[in-house]
Design goal:
Layout (H helix, E strand, L loop, with lengths): L1 E5 L4 H12 L3 E8 L14 E3 L3 H15 L3 E5 L1 H17 L6 H21 L4 E3 L4 E5 L6 E5 L16 H6 E2 L7 H11 L11 E3 L14 E4 L5 E5 L22 E6 L4 E5 L6 E11 L12 E6 L7 E7 L5 E9 L7 E6 L2 E12 L1
Helix pairs in contact: 1-2, 1-6, 3-4
Length: 360
């Protein structure tokens, strides 16, 4: 089988490529150029998907390909990344929401444009990455199922929840059943130069404000009754649930409860005001089943409202269009508009959407 492997210059994608070669596949390494060189500064000691020294990462990916003896391609998606991911990132923050650029990048860049551009240059049978997740076909329905990685601590299915059935039919995740320790051991056994490389920590390894061409407008920090308590330096610096860095004093701890982009205000309140029992999400992508009719009854699920959080038991109600509503058994803290809400049944991803609003 001919397989294109997305090489990021990290240990995970390197081992994914090595495993596929060992299995007898014809592998080509592909790296995406997207970070505009060193336009944005990286904080010392941090690595990330965007904003670091991309040229160095490309050299590291090429060194991996050379070690493995496979062809290597660099595909420039700088313009598309700016328009699809960075513009989305800016627009969401300026609208008072907290975006998830990794979900958007996977959906529209890595598993769409990068795959398409690869196919133009090197026709392949499958596209592989170093994500910790699994894809299997449901023998009864024929649908492709996205599943959590066997090693839950590294599971990345949350970030893949917007992938379509067509995309899932084309992908392979060789690390889906491995632990991080096993991956590093494999890298060492293959003699890969990335064996001891540190992991990327986030989307961006700098100050997010670097990504905004215009200086954010300052405004008021107000309590839930509208009383002005202080000033903020721009709503892009705040997110729901934030406590530190508010620059205000009060007799009790205060948290960001809401961000009002129209009024350019950050609304703060006590911790109990963060607690919610429901949310509405849109752009919901159904994976394990076709989108049910809005008249269908509730679906019992476990829901994650951010990556790294535990899953919460909920009832999911499909709404008109691509929206759903979730009602939780327990109260949740800091349900954040803009973040992905991803639903699971066991280790199977039901689907995912983006949080619009929350309610008591």
């Amino acid at each position: 089988m001919k397989i294109a492997v997305g090489l990021s210059g990290g240990v995970d994608s390197s081992v994914a490529a090595a495993l596929l070669i060992e299995q007898g596949h014809e592998v080509t390494g592909v790296t995406m150029k997207h970070a505009q060189g060193n336009l944005y500064k990286s904080m010392p000691g941090l690595t990330a998907c965007f904003g670091g020294d991309e040229e160095e990462e490309i050299r590291e990916a090429e060194a991996v390909a050379e070690k493995l003896g496979i062809p290597f391609l660099v595909i420039d998606l700088t313009k598309e990344y700016e328009e699809i991911v960075l513009d989305y990132f800016r627009e969401e923050y300026l609208a008072g929401r907290t975006p998830n650029p990794c979900v958007r990048c996977n959906q529209q860049i890595k598993f769409t444009l990068l795959m398409d551009r690869c196919m133009e240059k090197i026709p392949f049978d499958a596209f592989a990455t170093g994500h910790y997740a699994r894809v299997e076909e449901d023998e009864k329905t024929g649908r492709m199922l996205l599943k959590q990685a066997a090693y839950r601590r590294k599971d990345q299915s949350y970030f893949l929840s917007q992938l379509s059935q067509d995309q899932l039919r084309k992908v392979i995740f060789p690390l889906g059943r491995l632990t991080k320790e096993e991956v590093r051991a494999a890298a060492a056994s293959y003699g890969l130069p990335t064996a001891d490389k540190e992991e990327s920590q986030d989307f961006f390894a700098g100050d997010y404000r670097e990504l905004f061409p215009e200086k954010p407008q300052p405004g008021s920090i107000v309590d839930m009754e509208g009383k002005i308590l202080g000033r903020h330096s721009g709503i892009i610096s705040y997110t729901i649930g934030q406590r530190r860095g508010l620059g205000i004093s009060a007799p009790e701890p205060l948290y960001v409860i809401r961000i009002d982009a129209e009024q350019n205000e950050v609304v703060v309140g006590p911790k109990e005001a963060l607690l919610k029992r429901s949310l509405t999400a849109d752009q919901f992508n159904w994976i394990s089943q076709p989108a049910p009719d809005a008249s269908a009854g509730p679906l019992r699920v476990q829901a994650k409202i951010r990556h790294g959080s535990r899953a919460h038991t909920a009832s999911a109600y499909p709404l008109e269009g691509d929206k759903i509503q979730l009602f939780f058994e327990d109260e949740l803290e800091a349900v954040t508009p803009g973040q992905a809400a991803v639903l699971y049944q066991g280790d199977v991803v039901v689907g995912g959407g983006f949080i619009l609003s929350s309610g008591r």
